[in-house]
Amino acid sequence: MLLMTLAERAATQIRTWLYDGTIGRDGFHSVPEMAERLGMSRSPVREGLLRLAEAGLVEFVPQRGFRRVRPTGQDIAEIFALRLALEPQAAARAARQGRDRDAVVQQLHRQLTRMREAATSGDEVAFGTADELLHAVILECSGSSRLVALIAELRDTTRLIGANTAGRSRSHLEVLEEHEPFVDAIADADPARAAISMRRHLIDTGRLLVAQAYDDGDTEAWRAWSDLVDEDE
Hints:
By secondary structure, the chain is mainly alpha-helical. It has two domains: about 1-70, Arc Repressor Mutant, subunit A, CATH 1.10.10; about 75-230, Four Helix Bundle (Hemerythrin (Met), subunit A). Helix content is about 70%, strand content about 5%. The chain has a two-stranded antiparallel ribbon. The model has no long low-confidence stretch (mean pLDDT about 85). Keywords: DNA-binding, Transcription, Transcription regulation.
């Protein structure tokens, strides 16, 4: 029982390191290294890593150790096909809010401010958190807690497998600027523009992530994207 408890603790901490970038997308790590960092013996750390491997977050390579899983074009295309089916309509619904819209817009601007502050200070974790909260505010306007939870899980999966454009394909400030059009459209009570702006943001983000997967060696990345995502809808 003690071994399992320590394994859970190891898996939780390593998952956090995957999430905040402490364990980067490049390079290999060893069980002894993680055991030393965690102050544990190797057995529970190995067990915790096996759980993360089963969840698709890390992979073991013989004679090299483990590394975080690099997302494939298929992974990214599947995630963004789902987000494109749900989030533009959520943005449109947010723009249709009646007297509650002012409160929604206030929350959105609060998250934009936090994103700007984080971008200025270089705090990637705070930036990502504010980004997620901004999208969550919009999704909550759908009135569906299941939708909010589903998109949160998809975004979490994207970050955990190391798919992130901020700081690699575009700056944090550029990511921030992509959010402003649909926030403005919601503030202006313009559902059509809100949906279009959200869709454009998601497609631009998805394409950059697919390009990263292709650059990382997934030669089928663009085929997966074209098969699953209709950019002209």
